[in-house]
Specification:
207 residues; alpha+beta; four-stranded mixed sheet; globular
Length: 207
């Protein structure tokens, strides 16, 4: 039984939860983070000195950083169907996982904080417009990739990369502004919605 520390509304915690569903890994989750047990508590800092969620405990093994965690789970629990051992196939998946973390996530940060979280520090109209334009540009990149593959972000089949990317797509549709028509992204969202893990921990009413 894996122990997962982090609130269920966190997009990074949801990566881990969805991965566990895909791989059939039993887990128990504890609420830590905003509104719950504080991550600057000594007990939590002993697990993750960055004071951030998620953290997992697998026996005596402690791990933080969500993308590292989902890769570990796939490696440790027979996830070759969604994270193959072939170096080139794996690199293609890792490419999109890292793109989601470094480029796509960064683009939606300001609009999400402004429009969903209603953060007082994120209400500058020019910064919001720039953020939406940047986010839209990256979603256009994703749309073209999905149109090319005809299926999922790294190819025709669902892979580990679709978990972080799919959660960002859910955030795109859950943030209230006028969205351009991205047909391939919309079709992708519907395909992901056929997966139990996504409906439980992605398209569940939480952006």
């Amino acid at each position: 039984m894996i122990r997962i520390l982090g609130r269920a509304s966190s997009i990074n915690v949801r990566k881990v939860l969805w991965t566990c569903v895909e791989l059939g890994i039993p887990f128990e989750r504890e609420d830590w983070g905003s509104g719950f047990q504080p991550t600057d508590a000594p007990d939590f800092l002993a697990l993750n000195p960055n004071a951030m969620i998620p953290v997992i405990q697998d026996g005596d093994f402690i791990l933080w950083e969500s993308n590292t965690i989902v890769r570990y789970l796939a490696n440790q629990y027979g996830g070759t169907g969604i994270y193959p051992v072939d170096a080139k196939a794996r690199a293609r998946i890792d490419q999109w996982i890292d793109w989601q973390a470094s480029d796509l996530n960064r683009s939606w940060s300001y609009p999400f904080m402004s429009l969903v979280r209603q953060s007082p520090a994120h209400q500058d109209a020019k910064a919001l417009a720039a953020g939406i334009a940047d986010w839209t540009r990256f979603m256009g990149i994703l749309d073209r990739q999905l149109a090319r593959t005809g299926g999922y972000v790294a190819g025709e089949r669902f892979t580990l990369a679709d978990i972080p990317v799919g959660l960002s797509v859910n955030r795109w549709f859950g943030t209230p502004f006028e969205h351009p028509r991205l047909a391939a992204v919309e079709a992708y969202y519907d395909r992901l919605s056929e997966r139990a893990g996504f409906m439980l921990h992605g398209r569940n009413g939480v952006a």
